[in-house]
Amino acid sequence: MNSHLKSYLIILIVAVAAIFGFLQWQKYQTVQAPAEKPAGIGSDLYQQAGNPADNLPAINPLENKPDTNPLTQTNPYSNIKTNPFK
Predict the structure, then answer these.
(1) Which pLDDT score, from 0 to 100, does residue 31 have?
(2) pTM (2 d.p.)
(3) Which residue stretches belong to region Disordered (predicted)?
(4) How far is it, in rounded angstroms, from Cα 61 to Cα 20?
């Protein structure tokens, strides 16, 4: 056989083996991922406390605001239709 063909075959075999090894290593790393730490006493207290914003009353300070705009009632043409095709 030609020496160039032998060297290409060796390089191809080494590359395939390297890719296969890398994929096996990635699979091993994802399987062996560390487990989550168990929750401590702080986590338990946080779960028991809940969200204090859930118990707030629905207050809107601007719900009954006075109409302080002096120009709201000054348009004499507010009831005119502008689209003649409707």
Answers:
(1) 57
(2) 0.35
(3) 40-86
(4) 67
How is residue 57 written in tokens? 């009353």
Number of helices (H) and strands (E) in the chain: give both, helices first: 2, 0
Q: What is the pLDDT of residues 33-61, one digit of tens each?
A: 566 666 667 777 777 777 777 777 778 87
Q: What is the DSSP letter of 53?
A: G
The whole-angstrom separation of Cα 86 and Cα 76 is 22
What would the two tokens of residue 71 be? 């120009």
The CA distance from 65 to 23, in Å, is: 67
CA atoms of 15 and 68, how far apart (whole Å) = 79
Q: How far is CA 74 from CA 15, 34, 43, 68, 70, in A?
A: 83, 71, 60, 13, 8
What DSSP character marks residue 54? G
